[in-house]
Amino acid sequence: MLISSNAVLLLIDVQRAFDHPRYGRRNNPQAEANIARLLDTWRRTGRTVIHIHHIGVSPDSLFREHSEAVLPKQQALPLPGELVLRKSVNSGFIGTDLEERLRHLGCDCVVTAGLTTNHCVETTTRMSGNLGFPTILVSDAAATFDRIGPDGKLYKAEDIHAMTLANLHEEFAVISDTAAVIQAADKTAI
């Protein structure tokens, strides 16, 4: 795996709203710690970080603009000068200029992490791959929640996470973990 100096880290929806009990049980309690490790590596090596934040348009959304819940989690606070894009749908590419910014930066690899694996992380990762960017999804720097399917069955977060990764792997992205991505990034540090 190659992580060039032009690899961009997309941190997707690492926001306080996902701490609300409404979401229920989730997998991977270490996701935020791994996100913080990736963020530290990108900053330390001078690579570009783009934060993508969800802003809900529904009146009952936990992601309402100006609410405490819409703020980024402590582990992913943007620094001055780091780009923050705001979206209102699942993909970080829809309604933003993300693609143009990546192309302008000469991005030759997109690395995705955040919340939730099967919604905004998956959708952004798919579009990144479809737009021709070599993409890496960091499996242990993402998480999701239990869901009730249309059949009324409870699907565990671990199974949803694993199936999402299986669906994306080698079709839209390479699936890797935090340690491997950091090791690869350090090998090609600026």
Description:
The strands form 2 sheets. The protein has a 6-stranded parallel beta sheet, sandwiched between helices. Strand 4 (109-115), helix 3 and strand 5 (135-143) form a beta-alpha-beta unit. It contains 5 helices and 8 strands, in the order βαββαβαβββαβα. The chain has one domain (7-187): 3-Layer(aba) Sandwich (Rossmann fold), CATH 3.40.50. It has helices spanning 31-44, 98-105, 117-130, 157-168, 178-187; strands spanning 7-12, 49-54, 83-87, 109-115, 135-143, 147-148, 154-155, 174-176. 31% of the residues lie in helices and 21% in strands. The model has no long low-confidence stretch (mean pLDDT 96). The relative contact order is 0.23. The two termini are 17 Å apart. The radius of gyration is 16 Å and the shape is globular. The chain has 190 residues and is α/β, with parallel strands linked by helices.
Determine the CATH superfamily.
Isochorismatase-like
* Structural class by SSE content: alpha/beta
Report the major sheet: 6 strands, parallel
- In CATH, the architecture is 3-Layer(aba) Sandwich
